[in-house]
Amino acid sequence: MSEQETILNTSRQREASPDAKDCADAGARLEPVLAGPLAPIRLGDVMVNTPVMLSPMAGVTNWPFRVLCEEYGPDGLYVAEMVTARALVERNPKALRLCRFAPSERIRSLQLYGVNPSIMEQAARFLVDNGMMDHLDLNFGCPVPKVTRRGGGSALPWKTDLFTEIVQRVVAVCEPANIPVTAKIRVGLDHEHETFLEAGRIAQEEGCSAVTLHARTTAEYYGGHSDWCRIGELVSTLDIPVFGNGDIWGAEDAIAMVNETGCAGVAIGRGCQGRPWLFGNIGNAFAGSDVRINPTLGEVGRIIMRHAELLTEFYDGDERMAVHDLRKHVAWYLKGFPVGGSTRRAFMECESLKDVREQVDALDPNIEYPERVVDQPRGRVRFAKKVHLPYGWLDSRTTTHEERERLFGDDPMDASY
Ligand SMILES: Cc1cc2nc3c(=O)[nH]c(=O)nc-3n(C[C@H](O)[C@H](O)[C@H](O)COP(=O)(O)O)c2cc1C
Q: Is residue 399 exposed (0-12), middle (13-18) or buried (19+ Cβ within 10 Å)?
């Protein structure tokens, strides 16, 4: 262990969770059919008619991707990737780019990350004063070591005074402008250090309109299966809506989560990588329809091309940046299709829209969506090697003066997943 930080031993977690989804009474598992259409969620004055959220993903949920998702599911909530509060306060151009929206986006939803209540308040003030959003989510779920070792993301709810102050100060800025604030949390640091029920209660008391629970601990990172029972526990504890999050890969998973936990809505992360149409499928399921979209390779090619064009707009006409950003999406879009290594490599080597067009045109448009990847897991899946925390973090549930000085002197600019 470094002298500068506390490290949690995560080995016990590794054994604990591979099938955590199953609640104690899973024998009573319900069929993936809803009793009726799912009710809209009201976040202050913002109505989320289809209670499904695109969970923020750094490097993924910029406006081009959100636009594609919203085209399939026009009534959900599509949250931008997290923006670092300090970067916003310093008017960092990259951070400002992340706060842009397409004209078609119905609810302009941002997520803020930070550990310093004053900087969080200033960032919220800047966003509110410039009319830059309709909804603000606060990130208390990030498990990445460079974030948690500074007390941020999923490490933060452990310090209840800091958590309370951040929520309080941001809500105080947003409430008068009718901007609903929500909080995104995890179960805790590990199972010996759970924080979600208390964090949920504080968020509710301090004026949050909803809470999203990613039902894993920091130690569990993205490994095993999320523990949906914890979502059910939070639902029974709170009066505000809870968005359940973790391991929804298809519409039937979304229904199962609602049935098993009673959550008011669901949040989708990795499941929509390369599958923006998942929001159409979930919208259909929540409306009681069994229509499901599984596009042919021709349609997927059309989406890839459109994604490339939107990214070019996002990068102010810089095609090279756009097609580089597109690479990870292409890998997800083509997952499971019988497309050879040379074609995949050619996509990775594209430097312009013309290059992408050539590769898209060369795809066989008639190939059906591969059955074996329909509604199957994708994206990162590993456990944390270690949970990194600021030195002495676990000694107390509140911050000392020295801890605050150490934390706030070094607010990271480049916190990212
Ligand atoms: C690449 C990637 C980036 C992420 N970035 C963020 C982020 O910026 N803010 C956040 O709150 N969560 C972030 N997450 C977590 C997701 O929003 C979501 O909570 C998590 O992936 C669990 O949901 P899933 O099982 O549907 O993927 C990220 C996840 C991934 C895989």
A: buried
> Measuring CA to CA, how many Å separate 313 from each of 72, 100, 102?
20, 11, 10
Query: Which residue of the set 69, 142, 272, 350 is catalytic?
Result: 142
Domains (ranges, CATH) in the chain? 5-293+396-408 (3.20.20.70), 297-368 (1.10.1200)
> Residue 134 and residue 231: Cα distance in Å, rounded?
26
Any ligand 1 atom below 6 A from CB of 270: yes
Q: What is the pTM of this model?
A: 0.94
With the most atoms of ligand 1 within 8 angstroms of its CB, the residue from 84, 214, 272, 381 to mutate is 214
Q: Has 69 been annotated as catalytic? A: no
Mean pLDDT by 10 residues, the chain (417 residues): 69 49 52 79 97 98 98 96 96 97 98 97 98 98 95 98 98 98 98 98 98 97 96 98 98 96 98 98 94 97 98 98 98 96 97 98 97 90 89 96 86 51
* Residue to probe by mutation, ligand 1, list 109, 270, 328, 329, most atoms within 8 Å of CB: 270
Ligand 1 within 6 A of CB of 154? no
